[in-house]
Structure formats: structure tokens, C-alpha cells
Design brief:
The chain is of the alpha/beta class. The chain is 27% helix and 28% strand. The chain contains nine helices and 22 strands. The longest helix is centred in the middle third of the chain and has 15 residues, at 123-137. The two termini are 29 Å apart.
């Protein structure tokens, strides 16, 4: 019988969260709570822990849980010396090779991280984060999500380039919050159609493209141009704009949206002489998509941490969750950060000294979530 320590408890946890390592594609838990009727529940994939890991939550105020694992096809995993596994108190546990172990102490959290300049940029820092995540956060039931301006195909190219370096996320937010992808039992990225439906309201991508085309003619193609098609989607129209005409282009594009009756907004990013303008639905963006995924994965705002390094991450930092700005942050984000720190009485926004993924680790420590 396994009884967890007090340190293993989630503040709001009213049940047992079991992380299970198995080669079965879709394992289930067959269980009884407090010696009551037996029932079954399917496990969910847990990719940031590893491809073999699944997760299941069983509500119970007492924590007394008797169970076995099954593949649903007549095969069972039970202890070597008895019929059923037993857990005696609420908490988070791992089950691997017939051994139940209380999870490492510490809070369970959802980390939503930008990629370029934050999670990615130093392979050694990324590897340190990945090792820490697999050994400390994932066993607690924490979840990892990447939020990036890249499209899914561009993200997969990055994963291929950094093979063996990057940790596996449990979900992907791509194209500045216009696409949300969840992982299926085999690890494939599946577009969340509920989020896509949210973005459809008041949006017409073809009208946006027509409006931007008129702005390009006005400002000339040498100063404003469409970005390649593989950087865009039906809810994201992107153009490159020279800083000389940036304000003019933004004003004209906004006027075109009003004229066409399209509910959209502009997101500006980049440094130097050229900037990117993403025109997206009003409900799109890094913050809105973060809050959507937070709800899907079942985390409170207080248990959610956003991480980033650039100006286009500012929107993501403006929610009620916790946030980490890494030490290599770009000047526009640093200026915003300095203004915010005077107002952040709750201590939910921290500025790490270390760079990139090392800064995420430092930030988790500063927030008391390490």
C-alpha cells in the first residue's frame, strides 16, 4: 500500500493522479474507490514525460484506490505479489515496472514557452531544461506547451534540426495563436477544431488579403510585401514592412479591416529595418490561445507560467497567470518589463538573469515552482 507524503499533495487535488509507463497504445485503469463498485477510465497521452507515459486522474477525497491496468483486450498489469495495486491517499504517483512511486515534491504546473530565443537558441540550455523536465516536472503531472510564431511545418523542421535536443510538448500553439494542436495517442499533432471555430467569428481571410494588397500598391512593393504562403494560413495574413512606412501601413491596414467589416487585429514583431505585421482574428493571439489551452488541460491561471523573450510575447504576459522574461530579452520587452515590475504587486512576473532555457529554469525557481 502506497501512502504519499504531504509534500506530494496538490493544493486543489481531490483524488489520485497516476502517471503510467506502458507500451500499450491506449491503456485503461480498472479501479474501485473506497471498496465501492469497480469501473474503468481511459488514460491520456503524456508526451512531455516520454512516449511510453500516460496519465489518468481518479477523483476521491479519501485517496483509497484499488486498481489494475489493462489494454482493454484482456491483458492486465497487476502487482507481482497480489491481485491489485493499492494507493491509500490523494497525490500524484508514477507506476512503472510494477512499482508505484510518489511523485517528486513540488507544485504541478503548466509551462507555455515561446521557442526562438527562449526554449531554443542554446542547445546546451535546451538539453538542461529537457533533462530537468523529464526528471522533476513531468513526474508531478506538469505539462509543457510551445507557443510560437512558426507554423506547424516550420516547427517540425526545427524539431528535425534539433533532433534529440528539444523536449516533447503536450500541445503546440502555432502561427501567433491562430492554430492549436493537441497530441493523439501516437504523438501526432491534431488541429483543435474548437479553437478554429472560435476564430471564424467575424473573420474573412480573403477580404483581409485584398485589403493588404491595396496597401501594398499604396506603399509600393519595395516597402510592403506579402510573406511566403507557408508562413500564412486562413486565419493569419503576414506582410513584411519597412520601418519607414510601418505606422502608415498599420493605419491603412486597420482602415481596410474597418471598411471590409472584418474583426481583426495587428501583431507587430521583428527588429531592425524590417518588421512583420500579422493580421489575425480579434480572438487570436498568444494570450487568448494560452488561456484556451490552459482550460483544455485543466490548469488554473495561478499554476500556469508563460515564458518569452520578445515584444510579440507581451500579449502573452498580460494575463493573470505567472510569467518569466528570460535574460536575453529584446529591448522592447525589457522596457515593457521595467514598467510592469512597478505594478506587479503579486510577484507573478519575473525577469531572469540567465538566457534562454536556463532563464526558464531560473524563473521557475524565482516563482517558487522549481
Amino acid at each position: 500500500v502506497i501512502d504519499s507524503s504531504v509534500d506530494n499533495l496538490d493544493e486543489d487535488l481531490e483524488g489520485v493522479r497516476l502517471l503510467y509507463s506502458s507500451s500499450w497504445t491506449s491503456p485503461k485503469i480498472k479501479f474501485s474507490v473506497d471498496l465501492q463498485e469497480w469501473t474503468e477510465k481511459e488514460c491520456e497521452s503524456f508526451h512531455s514525460f516520454g512516449d511510453s507515459w500516460k496519465e489518468v486522474f481518479v477523483p476521491t477525497s479519501s485517496g483509497y484506490l484499488e486498481f489494475v491496468m489493462t489494454d482493454g483486450e484482456g491483458n492486465y498489469d497487476h502487482p507481482a505479489n497480489r491481485d491489485n495495486y493499492l494507493i491509500a491517499s490523494v497525490g500524484v504517483y508514477t507506476l512503472q515496472n510494477k512499482t508505484i512511486t510518489p511523485a517528486p515534491s513540488g507544485p504541478r504546473c503548466l509551462v507555455v514557452s515561446d521557442l526562438d530565443g527562449t526554449m531554443v537558441g542554446s542547445d546546451s540550455a535546451t538539453e538542461r531544461f529537457a533533462s530537468y523536465w523529464r526528471n522533476h516536472q513531468a513526474p508531478r503531472g506538469s505539462r509543457l506547451v510551445f507557443s510560437t510564431g512558426r507554423t506547424k511545418s516550420q516547427y517540425l523542421d526545427l524539431v528535425s534540426e534539433r533532433a534529440g535536443v528539444m523536449p516533447e510538448p503536450d500541445a503546440l500553439i502555432s502561427a501567433v495563436g491562430t492554430r492549436v494542436y493537441l497530441r493523439d495517442s501516437k504523438g501526432a499533432y491534431c488541429q483543435d477544431q474548437t479553437w478554429t471555430a472560435v476564430l471564424d467569428a467575424g473573420w474573412d481571410g480573403e477580404k483581409v488579403r485584398s485589403g493588404v494588397q491595396r496597401v501594398i500598391k499604396l506603399c509600393t512593393n519595395e516597402r510592403v510585401h506579402f510573406r511566403p504562403e507557408n508562413e500564412m494560413n486562413s486565419h493569419k495574413v503576414t506582410c513584411g514592412v519597412h520601418v519607414d512606412v510601418l505606422e502608415q501601413a498599420m493605419e491603412r491596414i486597420t482602415q481596410e479591416l474597418v471598411r471590409e467589416g472584418v474583426k481583426g487585429k495587428l501583431i507587430v514583431s521583428g527588429m531592425g529595418d524590417w518588421r512583420y505585421i500579422d493580421i489575425v482574428p480579434l480572438r487570436a493571439g498568444k494570450l487568448e490561445s494560452l488561456e484556451h489551452v490552459c482550460s483544455l488541460l485543466g490548469f488554473s491561471q495561478d499554476a500556469t507560467v508563460a515564458c518569452g523573450d520578445s515584444g510579440n510575447d507581451i500579449a502573452m504576459f498580460e494575463g493573470s497567470h505567472r510569467s518569466i522574461v528570460v535574460g536575453n530579452a529584446q529591448p522592447d520587452l525589457v522596457r515593457w518589463m521595467e514598467d510592469q515590475q512597478d505594478q506587479d504587486g503579486r510577484g507573478t512576473l519575473v525577469f531572469a538573469e540567465k538566457h534562454m532555457a536556463d532563464g526558464i529554469l531560473e524563473g521557475l525557481d524565482l516563482l517558487g515552482m522549481y
